[in-house]
Amino acid sequence: MTALPERYKVLTKARSEQRDLVIGYGLVLLGALGFSAKAIIIKLAYAANSEVDAITLMALRMLFALPFFLLVAIWRNKKSPALPLEKKQWGVVIVLGLMGYYIASYLDFIGLQFISAGLERVIIFLYPTFVVLFSALVYRRRITARVGVALGLSYIGTMLVFIEHLSIASSGLLSGSGLVLGSAIIFSWFVMGSGVMTRRIGSARFTAYTMTVASVATLLHFTFSHGAALTRLSSPPYSGWERVYSLAFIMAVFSTVLPAFFMNAGIRRIGAGPASIISTTGPVATLVLAYMILGEAITPVQIAGTFLVLTGVYVVSRVKLHIPD
User: Fold this and answer.
1) CA distances (Å), origin 324, targets 80, 99, 190, 197
2) Which distant-in-sequence residues (6+ apart) come within 8 Å of 45 by Cβ?
3) DSSP letters for 160-214
4) Which residues of 193-223 are buried (b: 16+ CB within 10 A; e: fewer)?
5) 81-86 contact pairs (CB < 8 A, 24+)
6) I want to staple 282 with a disulfide (CB 3.0 to 4.6 A). Which of 32, 64, 65, 231 is the partner?
7) Which letter, b or e, does each residue of 73-100 get, where b requires 16 or more Cβ atoms within 10 Å of its Cβ?
């Protein structure tokens, strides 16, 4: 008589686990697609108003995104109160916030003024390879032959995409690619540091604190460089300001806030390994969206180069770094 209830429990548990896996895969996919759309939205904002620059877009993005992260942090603190941060921890949070969400973002936004969205996404997607390289350098760990081959594939693929753009891109290709490459390198250092800090203070608090630091830095930068409020976009010669505001809001919500939460929730359900596989859809989605929305060309060489990058990054992303606390 007890066999049926036990069997029912096992089936129920299996169905629940399967449902969590499906939800997890869906959340990670949505997160990857959201992040991949950021470059498209930035390019559309630049096209909507030639007077809008990188720091203006960043400031609008931060203003729209920051309240969401702060609300989540407040809710998490009420749900499970945490110990206050030490001075050293605050210092690390400030440095990481400036690196990840201010400097790296600023370089990326400027770079997109010169290069295509497809090339930008391929270069940015190299950051896991830099995490592996810098981790091996800092912690003096040997890079295996398998990882070495994966790194080589990633960089060869990037060079293929870059060379392909030499014949179709503007004169700003070198400077734009260099800026985005700098963004990827700086973001890799942010990732290395964030892995340690999220284990110490929690992902919600860490994201809220670093976003706050970056928001303050971005708004100060905007104030010093432009000396006016963001509402100045509503006055001449800023025609099309309504579209810029709309695109900035869409970028903040659908390419910043929601993807961050989707990714975190999805990784909790399926793990980092499967999530890294699904995340490789990001650059492909950017290529497709750039072709459909921006009219950017897709060539066989570009597809081959992107495939090499994704293959290399996938292998590298599965490496367990074991970064010490």
Assistant:
1) 26, 20, 15, 11
2) 52, 57, 243, 244, 247, 248, 251
3) HHHHHHHTTS-TTHHHHHHHHHHHHHHHHHHHHHHHHHHHHH-HHHHHHHHHHHH
4) bbeebeeebbbbbbbbbbbbbbbbbbbebbe
5) 82/201, 82/202, 82/205, 85/201, 85/209
6) 32
7) beebeeeeeeeebeeebeebbbebbbbb
Which amino acid is it at 105?
Answer: S
Q: What is the pTM of this model?
A: 0.85
Highest-confidence segment of 29-33, 184-188, 234-238, 263-267: 184-188
Residue type, 218: T
Q: Report whether pLDDT(16) > 90.
A: no
For residue 193, give the nearest of 237, 138, 266 by alpha carbon. 138
Cα gap 77→53, rounded to integer Å: 36
Among residues 194, 196, 153, the alpha carbon closest in space to that of 307 is found at 153
* Selection from 115, 122, 235, 232 nearest residue 184 by Cα: 122
Q: 3-state class of 319 per DSSP?
A: coil
* 26 against 198, higher pLDDT: 26
Residue 233's alpha-carbon distances to 51, 53, 112, 136, 155, in angstroms, are 9, 11, 21, 46, 40
Q: Which of these ranges, 2-16, 202-216, 246-260, has the smallest mean pLDDT?
A: 2-16
Alpha helix (H) residue ranges in 98-172: 104-111, 117-124, 127-138, 145-166
Average of per-residue pLDDT values in the chain: 82
Residues 6 or more apart whose CB falls under 8 angstroms from that of 304 comprise 157, 160
Query: What does 22-70 look like in DSSP terms, one character per residue?
Result: HHHHHHHHHHHHHHHTHHHHHHHHHHH-TT--HHHHHHHHHHHHHHHHH
